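Long-time lurker. I teach an intro course on protein structure, and each term I like to show students one example going from raw sequence to a predicted 3D structure in token notation. This year I'd like something fresh instead of my usual example. Would anyone be willing to generate the tokens for the chain below so I can use it in lecture? Attribution to the forum is fine with me.
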Amino acid sequence: MINVNEVLHRMIAEFQRIEQVTAIAMVGSKFCNYQNDLSDISINVYYTAPISKEMRSEILTKFSNDIELSGTDIVETDRFQLRDFCIEMTICYFCFEDIENKLIQLMKDAVINQKDSTKVAYFIHYSNIIFDRHEKLNQLKQNYTASYPDELRRNIIQLNYPKLKKESKCYYHQFERALSRRNFPHLISLLNNYLISYIDSIFALNKQFNPVEKRVLQVMDETCRIVPKMLKENIELLFVYASRCDKQLLQVLSIMMNQLDHLLKKEELV
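-- Reply from a regular --
Happy to contribute to a lecture. Here you go:
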């Protein structure tokens, strides 16, 4: 009986035959082989020229009866379930040149944005390369993600730290206003943005790449040595107090910020 590994090998072989496909990689730090975490498999396909939806559909219909092709997202993404297996799969398609330029901008020039942080470096660094036509993806991995630049670390802290401080007119005072108005939707939005900045700072403190969207707390546990005490418990408390519009949320914010402030000063980052 055919197993999942064989199906994946056949699918990848189909994409390898496409001339403009330059590399294929399994995504994430957990993927050392195909047999890990089969409930959700992600593959990145890197190309030199776009792959048409028709060509993608022709390949994927050989392996699935339930396919959702995307042609409008910022990143083209196909989602489907493998035939005969209860396994969800995602294939994302990236222009190789775009990824290379983003890595240069991030890792060489230390230019960042709040939305993506170091996500592109994370996924390249932890990619399990399955196919690399001219060894270009492996070269990117070695050239740009083997180390974490000090300038990048400082820039990420400088971007996030001022917004987190109690004296700032950003998050803390916005939380005060939202709590006094019992504006629950705004509280949850604020909390999400606050934690993005806070957690991004922790990754930078530890010189570790931030996945941003996927398994952030789990990845932080696995990769970050310097972490504020009882961080998960405090994050849970933030959501509990936010759900009640309870002003004890401000006390938890202060505790978390004092802890982060202490760690950053110890590393002479602020």
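Some talking points for your students: Residues 184-205 form the longest helix (22 residues). Residues 32-38 have pLDDT under 50 and may be disordered.
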